[in-house]
């Protein structure tokens, strides 16, 4: 075997080592990916945060284009935190 072939085999084994199992949850017989639950949880928590900020009167002082970016970032952060908290192996 050539050296190049061994390097290709080694690199492909490294790249495919993360494909051991599919991260999914069985819900009533259908398998859903874990990230979907984390994303939905992030959206719900961002909505609760929005309700709290509206109740505190903070939203009136913030520009609306800034809100779109900040709520998108907040949703992503909360979804990733949910992934780390509930689905770590």
From TrEMBL:
The keyword Signal applies. The chain crosses the membrane at residues 37-59, 66-86. It comes from the Bacteria. PROSITE patterns: PROKAR_LIPOPROTEIN. GO terms for cellular component: membrane. This is Uncharacterized protein YtcA. It is a multi-pass membrane protein. It is found in: Membrane. Coiled coil: none annotated.
């Amino acid at each position: 075997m050539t050296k190049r072939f061994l390097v290709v085999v080694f690199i492909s084994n490294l790249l495919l080592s993360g494909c051991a199992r599919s991260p999914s949850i069985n819900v009533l017989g259908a398998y859903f990916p874990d990230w979907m639950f984390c994303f939905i949880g992030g959206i719900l928590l961002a909505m609760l945060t929005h309700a709290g900020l509206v109740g505190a009167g903070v939203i009136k002082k913030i520009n609306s284009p800034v809100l779109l970016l900040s709520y998108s970032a907040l949703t992503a952060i909360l979804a990733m935190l949910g992934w780390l908290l509930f689905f770590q192996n």
